[in-house]
Write a structure and sequence with these properties.
This protein is an alpha/beta fold. The chain has 3 domains: 63-192, no CATH class; 288-363, OB fold (Dihydrolipoamide Acetyltransferase, E2P) (Beta Barrel), CATH 2.40.50.140; 370-666, Purple Acid Phosphatase, chain A, domain 2. Strand 10 and strand 11 (313-316) form a beta hairpin. The protein starts with a helix and ends with a strand.
Amino acid sequence: MNPPAKKIQAFFRPKHPLKPTNIHPPSSSTFTSDPFEPLPPSSLPPSSSRAPTPRILAVEIPPSILRPVAFRVFTKKHNLTLKSDALALLCAFVGRRCGADWRDSGTGERLLDEIARQWKRNEGAQGVLVDGGEALKGVIRGMEVPGAGSAGAGDLLRVGAVRGEEWDLGRGVESSQLWGAEAEAHVAAAVGGGAGVLDVEGGVDGKRFLKVVDAFAMPKWAYNPLKRGFEKAPKPTLLPPASAKTTLFRTRYTLLHQRLLRTELFLPPTFLAATKATAREQHKLTPISNLLGRAGQNFLLFGMLAVNPSGVLTLIDTSGEIVLDLSIAVAVPEDGSWFAPGCFCIVDGAFEENSKFTVYTVGQPLPERRDASAEVFGHVDFLGNGVTLDMGVNFGDGGGGGGGQQGRAMRRAESEEGVRMVFLGAVELDGKGVLEGLRRVFEILEEAPPLMIMLIGSFTSIAMGTNGGSVAYKEYFDRLASLLADFKALTEASTFVFVPGDNDPWASTFSGGSSAALPRKAVPEMFTGRVRRVFQGAAAGGEAVWTSNPCRVGALGRYDPPNFSTLSLLFLYVCADELGFVQLVKTILDQGYLSPFALGTRPVLWDYWHALMLYPLPTALVLCEPAMQPFALTYEGCNVMNPGRLVERRRVRWIEYRPATGRGEVKESSF
């Protein structure tokens, strides 16, 4: 039975019909009796006006109604506290801009989320208390961007300017569906993209998406296991109290523990299995303190390997310590990674009556891919540059970087094959043939200047001790400045980043080239004056950045990709097998830490442990180890590269990384 015609018309009636015009073209019956005879082309000019955007009827939202949503967004998600006057201001703003559907359509919550993000960006870590003063009013005024396009389009509020999304809250669609490319360019300038980020012809200025973050300027986030989220920690210091040392290991433990509990092996089943055959095996981690009185039973433990004062290997977690018996232990996978004091591991075995734990198998903590971490902590800005984690992760085929104008610019930049980054390792300026090798590399790169060239130290083969050597050290950089002056195309187009090593001042003055504490500060300015002047005399495109070791680089709008660092491990010099780099990569990424070893082997500044964390996993990681051959491999979606030593037997080697493919490639040339 067919439905009535009136119901069919009502079902297909547009939600916002166009207003009827006064000009109607004549019907076919006016000119001919044949209704199928084609009409002559109309002489009416095409209309250029668009359908007017429906106005939103403002509503008055009581504070008691908006308070639960504001509490969930500001307090639970962003760790902010709302005062009553700020809540009243938000009630008026949300009611005016979102209308009666502010809750059902989700536009009100998105609007509050963007206000909270902009507040944190403006006020920083000190702005925990949100009041209704001029600061909040300025954020609200900044959210109101005048609409582009034809008259009558109305004022559109761009919710998601930070994420690159422009929303028309009245209709819930992207502004790119309403406007053309000209209006999108206007929006890009309005949300802070600036001119030149994305032009009409498709060119992308990659330097606007490149930022080098020093380890000592990186914000410190501490994981709270009770709230199961990250919180802003106090500003670190070089001379912290003794409790900072225990905080270092406790934070590493809680981060790895919460990561393990989210893996499929440790998640409890959602539904009970009908039979034992269909039941999924669930593993459970047992605290060490719960082993008391349970001798002869098998357990799965998680903790850190350590050596007690008696020289016995033990396992430590937050509840206690137990002696390990590794006489029959087998690594899983065998020869797949390294285990040393300071590493966290999962051990499977039995608790004996002599209070020892007999280990059957031992393995690394299971890693977590970057996109999986973004689903949980995607709202956290780990670098403090306004780019959250979920902006830099590819969810499906849509690409990363968020939606809207800024996200499309990022994805277009990543798709350009010409965008590449170059890494040179162990650039010992006093070494034989190093300057000649650098000249050869620069000659090759000058044909197509890369986005960034990173030179990783040590910049001298001999540590600068207390007996002087500063004059000779400065001369090495003066020679480098003379070499760079011959390559104007590189100094005008590329960003040069200099990362110090173990032999560079001033840490080497006290360590003598041995393992100095990480992170390490940049090369002092007193040695780099001539190199800086070379770039000051060049055009505005190139620059020289002197940063710490390790450092972070945010490139092309993603969070923390690539993550560049240099890491010298003492025992790597005795590893000559071909699989050594595979074990190194798996150990570091599974541990989620750049130096997962005892502090006596590689000292770490207690209060700057956050600069060495690899959680979430970066898009790319550069480890400069001269004792190993150059390599580039991918593990759990993270591309790990080692440029090796720059010059070896009249051959120069380097790494080229292309964001379009997410892969690094070892390059080599003779000179």
